[in-house]
């Protein structure tokens, strides 16, 4: 049994900074998230938006903030378990079992940085779509080069869909962008770029069916509010319909409500060894901001380490004294 000191569930800004801080304190640390990438809401919901209330940054794009947090983490050899959803916590004497949809992890303490819950992509609601999942239909892009020289369609009408189409254009053989409405909900600048690109814009089109022999080959499209149909040959379809969140802590054996998890001033939940940080924490006067989560993260880590071994000081040395 490989037991970690601290396991952090949720790799949004709060969880990422908690992981960095745990590294600073030499804790053997693991991070689990449902998404295939780090960043939580930053990378999933608004990567291209500027944030103005991060201390020390007059303004910074959400995606860039996530990248900076990730860069900070490269100092440490943490273990990452992405694309795994935690479904419950079990408690065995001094060890907490973190049960995911894939395996069980073991940890002396847990930090829950769950935000509003685990993110799930809104899927294509077609019977055959599941057959082609990861076999032509993708909901995330983890490696852009996978699409090099391929015929790719992107479905969706928001910023991310437009951005993905533009990023794929120089790499893929052909890129089509399919949206059920005539207008995109994207930055004017991106729309301008789109108009000047070779991306084939298919609006207002709906995807009515997908087919293929061993992998995805054809999208069956219909013009919205019309009987007109057409087929599009593709190697890949990237679906970008946004995300839903799921927060179900019924089996976690900790006090929680729909608003989140009540914590004490040391960020401890109702259960020994389980601490929290970020949007998920609830206490009087709580404000849901990234800056708040950044403050809660070191409190959670230092108190978790003190729980594991009372010899660990809750007030650690300053980072400026650790690295000269
Ligand atoms: C459009 C928009 C603009 C915003 N602008 C600002 C701003 O300008 N300034 C500001 O301070 N804040 C802003 N926010 C809010 C800010 O993004 C959140 O406060 C912040 O992301 C919370 O961070 P977090 O780490 O607590 O949670 P999240 O970022 O929500 O991350 C939580 C992570 O936990 C994972 N997770 C949850 N449950 C599980 C599970 N069971 N198993 C595995 N993984 C799980 C999720 O997949 C997710 O990746 C904005 C939010 C939005 C939507």
TrEMBL record:
Keyword hit for Cell membrane: no
Domain of life: Bacteria
Cited Pfam families: Pyr_redox_2 (PF07992)
Domain FAD/NAD(P)-binding: 4-301
UniProt keywords, alphabetically: FAD, Flavoprotein, NADP, Oxidoreductase
Necessary cofactors: FAD
EC number of this enzyme: 1.18.1.2
Cofactor note: Binds 1 FAD per subunit.
Gene Ontology MF term list: ferredoxin-NADP+ reductase activity
Catalysis performed (reactions): 2 reduced [2Fe-2S]-[ferredoxin] + NADP(+) + H(+) = 2 oxidized [2Fe-2S]-[ferredoxin] + NADPH
Binding site for FAD: 33, 41, 46, 86, 119, 279, 320
Family: Belongs to the ferredoxin--NADP reductase type 2 family.
Subunit structure: Homodimer.
Name of the protein in its database record: Ferredoxin--NADP reductase
């Amino acid at each position: 049994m490989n037991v970690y000191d601290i396991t952090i569930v949720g790799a949004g800004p709060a969880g990422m900074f908690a992981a960095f801080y745990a590294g600073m304190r030499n804790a053997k640390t693991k991070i689990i998230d449902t998404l295939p990438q780090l960043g939580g809401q930053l990378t999933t919901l608004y990567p291209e938006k500027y944030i103005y209330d991060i201390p020390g940054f007059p303004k910074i794009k959400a995606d860039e903030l996530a990248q900076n947090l990730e860069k900070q983490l490269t100092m440490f050899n943490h273990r990452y378990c992405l694309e795994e959803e935690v479904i419950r916590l079990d408690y065995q004497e001094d060890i907490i079992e973190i049960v995911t949809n894939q395996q069980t992890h073991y940890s002396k303490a847990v930090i829950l940085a769950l935000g509003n819950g685990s993110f799930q992509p809104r899927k294509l609601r077609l019977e055959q779509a599941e057959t082609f999942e990861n076999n032509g239909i993708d909901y995330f892009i983890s490696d852009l080069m996978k699409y090099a020289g391929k015929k790719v369609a992107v479905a969706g009408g928001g910023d991310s869909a437009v951005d993905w189409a533009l990023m794929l254009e120089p790499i893929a053989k052909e890129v089509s962008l399919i949206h059920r409405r005539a207008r995109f909900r994207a930055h004017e600048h991106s729309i301008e770029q789109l108009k000047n690109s070779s991306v084939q814009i298919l609006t207002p089109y709906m995807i009515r069916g997908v087919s293929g022999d061993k992998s995805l080959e054809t999208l069956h499209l219909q013009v919205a509010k019309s009987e007109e149909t057409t087929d599009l040959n593709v190697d890949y379809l990237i679906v970008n319909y946004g995300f839903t969140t799921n927060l179900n802590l019924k089996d976690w054996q900790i006090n929680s409500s729909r608003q989140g998890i009540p914590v004490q001033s040391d960020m401890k939940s109702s259960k020994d060894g389980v601490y929290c940080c970020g949007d998920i924490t609830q206490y009087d006067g709580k404000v849901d901001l990234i800056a708040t989560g950044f403050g809660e993260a070191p409190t959670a880590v230092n108190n978790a380490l003190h729980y594991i071994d009372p010899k660990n000081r809750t007030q650690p040395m300053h980072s400026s004294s650790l690295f000269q």
